[in-house]
Amino acid sequence: MDTNTEKQEYTITVYTENQVGLLNRIAIIFSRRKINVESLNTSPSEIDGIHRFTIVIHESRSVVIKLVRQIEKQVEVLKTYFNTNDEIVWQELALYKVLSEEITERVKVERLLREFGARAIAIRKDFIVFETTGHREETNKLMKALEPFGLVEFVRSARVAIIKESSGFHEKLKDFENREPSEEVIENEYLGKREAVFTM
Amino acid sequence: METIIAKTTEEKVAAKIAPITLTGSQAVLEACIAEGADTIFGYPGGAIMPIYDALYDYNDKLKHILVRHEQGGIHAGQGYARTSGKVGVVFATSGPGATNLVTGLADAMIDSTPLVCITGQVFAHLLGTDAFQETDIINITMPVTKWNYQITDATEIPGILAKAFYLARSGRPGPVLIDITKNAQIQSFNYEGYTPCNHIRSYRPKPVIRKNFIDEAVALINNAKKPLVIFGQGVILGKAESEFKKFIEKSGMPAAWTILGLSALPTDHPQNVGMLGMHGNYGPNVLTNECDVLIAVGMRFDDRVTGRLDKYAKQAKVIHLDIDPSEIDKNVKADVGVWGDCKETLPLLTLGIEQKDRSEWLQVFASYTQKEYDQCIKDEVYPATEEMTMGEVIRLVNETTLGNAVMVTDVGQHQMVTCRYAKFNESRSNVTSGGLGTMGFGLPAAIGAKFGAQDRTVIAVIGDGGIQMTIQELGTIMQTGVDVKIMILNNQFLGMVRQWQQLFNDKRYSFVDIQSPDYVMVAKAYGIEGAKISHRHELEAGIKTMLAHKGSYLLEVMVGKEHNVFPMVPQGCSVSEIRLK
């Protein structure tokens, strides 16, 4: 497979300052190029005051690299990484609301909980809310299983991901605060692998 | 805030003064003064009234130029920034005032022009209520600004403006917009002095130079038989004109320019081989596809320069010098990407490269120049026809100015002709809208260019289409008495579109037949002298009169209606498929 032109799922991790409007600045980098964002999550990071965006897109490597450079160009962005699925550990969370009478009478709740690793997080007379975490296929499975029993509501969160090789951002941040940071801070990780990366 | 404001103790001490009470508006003006902005282009309105009220007392320190439309204001700011090398400052009010800046912001963004635009905004408590003249200018301008920020509290003003000026001018320059709500302009606060910003932790203005890339580039250049240097505005923005000259002179390489790089190298430099791109010169275009090493300096491989990308310089090793890492490999894959400020990278390359004589290779360019002259240039600058040509007008201007004037152009055929034929001796002399191609840019940009270079002659070359887009700025000329020479090259058509319709749409001249008012009378109404030239025998004297005139002057020259700009690389063609006719 030619990774430069073949599309696949990439997870982009962006470390940023916490500033109003930055979400929009990052979002328009994608929308301007008519690239669909599959999932986008913002959260605090391992460092106080620094935010972490996790963005999932389905694109070719050469496009992802250009996007990453455009993201890094934004004034409030400290650092951007991009990874394929085998380079990260990730989870998504899903919630399912079903009617209690259906689920208690027709399906054994116990079986659902065990089989799908689900948890019941709200049990009421009229409805039950289940929760699962996992990869998309896993959360989809329970959705499929519940569909015949009248799934009232379903919602899935954005992906959150941990980069396997990353040693965190603490050391890098110190470097960023220096006036003359090291080469590593300034350059994108992929710079050394340019030959392998581009096909134009 | 700690991270925004410079932190070194000496600076803090130097800047610290006994706290005084200032309003937000006064703090804005203090920031402009501290940043060395001497001229502001602007237009007042409801939401920016407190700043204008404060400005009333700053008349001795800040010159404010009242424009006739905010678009005129921002283009003037751009012209000022281009000729002076300083940050252009523009004021506008909220709502329509702010949205009128958008074209200029987009133009400044794509042409990397340093600007700080201050817009007024409705009171903070009214944000999001669809208040009178409220518009979400932060989100509207997000894609066309390097950075923007909304201030709702006066205490933020010194720090944010310091950041704004720093961001506008550092790294790859660009426009910054600061939106200030009316309450913040009115609010009084304890002002502790102004500390310029020179570090933002999340912002890397220049990448670190890596020695291995310098070494690789040097090796490529030293082994090259037929190297070609192509340069853009990065040379001018980096104030690296002399470093650039030393670089090309040491190894005798031919150098060709993009229209924004124009004037960084004097026109008559023996290694200046001309203009790149769609209407560029024959030699540099064809030989881009024959050189063995292509060295791009501070340029971004715009599609108007490269033509068809998959047939662009495929035979050559490409060295790309740029301060903006996202430009490397964006359009053309570089074999060696030399990240960094060319003011620093060029001397490193010069140090390593060998002294070479490449007169044989330069001779190849000369032979192409000769061919282009015979088939194309000669008829344009010394026409045998009765109709006047744009090329001969520019030639006559050159003969009088000797290449010492600032040439400002609008967009279209006259722009291409001016860039092709105008002579330049010094840098920062060519002001044009390159990336965005903004018609209406010329007249206001010329006003700003003159304020940015007051001791120089400023000539605005504008078509009969573009002048009518911002003709209201004649009022700014009238009121300020600024000395701008306006040359309207009138071909009674929207000429560039007409040329394309002739060549590619079977001469279906769809809505390009534009009528003009009597420009000389219009100028007279604004108190500006002028003349119309309809015959060749009046032309030379007309140009001399214009240039000798004290104060602004409008010269309308009636040129041939259906002249085309050649050479031309038709859209979708490779640079080597350039047509001479």
Protein model, in words:
The complex is a heterodimer of chains A (200) and B (581). Chain A has 8 helices and 9 strands. With 200 residues, chain A is of the alpha+beta class. Chain A folds into 2 domains: 7-88 and 164-197, Alpha-Beta Plaits; 89-156, ACT-like. Chain A, domain 2 (Alpha-Beta Plaits). The model of chain A is unreliable at 187-200 (pLDDT under 50). Chain B folds into 3 domains: 9-191, 3-Layer(aba) Sandwich (Rossmann fold), CATH 3.40.50.970; 211-363, TPP-binding domain (Rossmann fold); 388-558, 3-Layer(aba) Sandwich (Rossmann fold), CATH 3.40.50. The longest helix of chain B is centred in the middle third of the chain and has 23 residues, at 359-381. Residues 1-14 of chain B have low confidence and may be disordered.
What's the short version?
Chain A has 200 residues and is α+β, with helices and mostly antiparallel strands.
Strand content of chain B: 15-25%
Instruction: Just name the CATH architecture of the largest domain in chain B.
Output: 3-Layer(aba) Sandwich
What would the principal axes of the Cα set say about the shape of chain B?
globular
Q: Can you tell me the CATH topology of the largest domain in chain A?
A: Alpha-Beta Plaits
Distance between the termini of chain A: 16 Å
Helix content of chain B: 25-40%
List keywords for this structure.
heterodimer; A: about 200 residues; alpha+beta; Alpha-Beta Plaits; four-stranded antiparallel sheet; 8 helices; elongated; disordered C terminus; B: about 575 residues; alpha/beta; Rossmann fold; six-stranded parallel sheet; 23 helices; 20 strands; about 15% strand; globular; disordered N terminus
